[in-house]
Write a structure and sequence with these properties.
single chain; 127 residues; alpha+beta; Thiol Ester Dehydrase, Chain A; 5-stranded antiparallel sheet; MaoC-like_dom
Length: 127
């Protein structure tokens, strides 16, 4: 890996099942992640993905590219536009630093309304 290398994009269909399953798996029982009627009552057009699901998908994106020996050392993300059912999130990444076995990757995830997630992942890839 070299600074400037781009990871191939990954399209993730944002399904109702993915949103609800991610919320349940992370024990996030907020109604806006599983109840469309209550989400609308709170101002959202539908349920939306929680940050822990996004965090997991970002980690998967990086480890899928770096391989099974990669160990995530730091994931620092910020959410923007929500991921609603029926949309697609496209993750992209660019290597920003390489120091020995440690690589830093700038991540972006976009959907039809904008940037859903931005951030940086630091991973160790033993040789």
């Amino acid at each position: 890996m070299n600074v400037g290398d781009a990871l191939p994009p990954l399209d993730i269909p944002v399904t109702r099942t993915l949103i609800v399953a991610g919320a349940l798996a992370s024990r996030d029982y907020q109604d806006v992640h599983h109840d469309a009627e209550l989400a609308r009552a709170k101002g959202s057009p539908d349920i939306f993905m929680n940050i822990l699901t996004t965090n997991g998908l970002v980690g998967r994106y990086v480890t899928d590219h770096l391989g099974p020996r990669a160990v995530l050392r730091k994931v620092a993300i910020r959410l923007g536009a929500p991921n609603h059912p029926g949309d697609t999130m496209t993750l992209t990444g660019t290597v920003t630093a390489v120091t020995g076995d440690v690589v830093e990757i700038r991540i972006s995830g976009t959907n039809s309304i904008g940037h859903h997630v931005t951030g940086t992942v630091t991973a160790e890839v033993p040789r």
